[in-house]
Structure formats: structure tokens, C-alpha cells
Amino acid sequence: MSLESVFSVLAGWVLLGQALSSRELLGCVLMFAAIVLAQLPEKKDD
Q1: pLDDT digits (tens, 9 = 90+) for 1-42
Q2: Are 5 and 31 a contacting pair, CB within 8 Å?
Q3: DSSP string of the chain, one letter each residue
């Protein structure tokens, strides 16, 4: 579910030929990085 926006942007680019501005691309990169960081497991100190 968290990657739904990524797939919608890719589909718009591939199927509809839409283009993103540099500001929109930066937002996509930041969102993707946040999603990946949120999915990483926590380190446990033993």
C-alpha cells in the first residue's frame, strides 16, 4: 500500500506520457526514501 503513489507515477509516465518537474521528482525521491526507511527493521542491542 505504501508504494501505491510510486506505481501511479510510473504508470502515468509509461502509459500516458506524463512528465514531472524537478520539484515533483525531488518529492518522489524523498517519499520513496521515507517509505524505505520506515520499512527497515530496528536494530536490537543485545
Answers
A1: 667 877 888 899 899 988 889 998 898 889 888 888 988 888
A2: yes
A3: -TTHHHHHHHHHHHHH-----HHHHHHHHHHHHHHHHHHSPPP---
Which residue's C-alpha cell is 505504501?
2
- Residue 12 CA to residue 4 CA, distance in Å, equals 12
For residue 22, which phi and psi values (nearest 5 degrees)?
-65, -35
Give the pLDDT score at 23.
93
- Confirm if 32 and 6 have CB atoms less than 8 A apart: yes
